[in-house]
Amino acid sequence: MTEIELLVDFYKNTERQGPGSTSDTLKALDFIDLNKDQKLKIADIGCGSGGQTITLAQNLAGQITAVDLFPEFLEELNVRSADLGFQKRIKTLEKSMEDLQFDNEELDIIWSEGAIYNMGFEAGIKKWRDYLKIGGYLAVSEITWTTDSRPGEIEEFWNSEYPEIDTASNKIKILKENGYSLVGYFVLSQNSWIDNYYKPLEKRFSAFLERHNNSEMAKNIVEEQKEEIRKYHKYKDYYSYGFYIAKKI
Ligand code: SAH
Question: Is 143 contained in some domain?
């Protein structure tokens, strides 16, 4: 197995593949001033197994295209959405977020939780803007510094993991410079990280290692996760996911 295949296996059959919660999704949705009973066209990019996609389907009329690079996650979402009777309204699409083929001004809403970093925040919001109607909305969560300064260890860690990590004011500036107007912003709670994301992951470590006969690669993945969790607990006052809701102007 390659490292990517192992990572997909590690995240398979989890409720979420990143920090977040149903109440965060609903809170972000509240900022969107569109008629939610209307047949809207929505894309959920980097949807994973679709925790938030289901919440969107439950609270918006219209058609959702749920995009992810990995078919394993999309299959899980297809099963979940069929169970709930959403198979006609949630269409999954296996594609890279960098290579989407929506028409210009096709979409009312672009949603993306904990995923835009895969192509980079600025590149993502620039490219995806074309697909949005004027007056359409972008809702993205993105790793964000929550204070103006921070200890060296965590600054260095995140700068090497994801150099685009920044404060909310700088992220909002980038949105404004690229033809969006901010309509809402909030920070994910610590429970969205700990209870909804890290705790369920921690419970999977031993079965994952067993499944892969304690291979070096599997052990490395678990060690890296443990280290990320350790850093989160130590430095959680300095960063979180910010949820940015913005309108295309
Ligand atoms: N939105 C989900 C998943 C977040 S994890 C949640 O909040 O639970 C990030 C997701 O992005 C993963 O499902 C991963 O498979 C997907 N991903 C990574 N690179 C991608 C790419 N280039 N294009 C589309 N999806 C990608």
Answer: yes
Provide the strand spans (E) within the chain: 40-45, 62-68, 90-94, 107-112, 132-145, 166-167, 180-187, 239-248
Name the strand (E) or helix (H) holding 127.
helix 121-129
pLDDT digits (tens, 9 = 90+) for 158-176: 999 999 999 999 999 999 9
Residue ranges making up the domain that contains 111: 17-189+240-248
Say if ligand 1 is within 6 A of residue 53 CB: no
| Structure-token pair, residue 166 | 């920044």
Binning the chain into helix, strand and coil, the percentages to the nearest 5 are 45, 25, 30
Record the tokens describing residue 31, joined without a space: 């900022």
- Domain CATH code at residue 34: 3.40.50.150
> Best of 7, 10, 47, 110 to mutate for ligand 1, by most ligand atoms within 8 A of CB?
47
Both tokens of 133, joined, read: 């109607």
Is the pTM of the predicted complex or chain greater than 0.85? yes
CB 47 near ligand 1, within 6 Å: yes
| Total tally of structural domains belonging to the chain | 1
The ligand 1 atom nearest the CA atom of 97: 23
User: What is the phi-psi region of residue 164: left when phi exceeds 0, alpha when psi lies from -120 to 50, beta otherwise?
Assistant: alpha
Question: With the CA atoms of 37, 42, 46 and 52 taken in that order, what torsion angle do they form, in degrees rounded to the nearest 10?
Answer: 0
pLDDT tens-digit readout, 70-91: 999 999 999 999 999 999 999 9
Rounded Cα gap, residues 93 and 15, in angstroms: 19
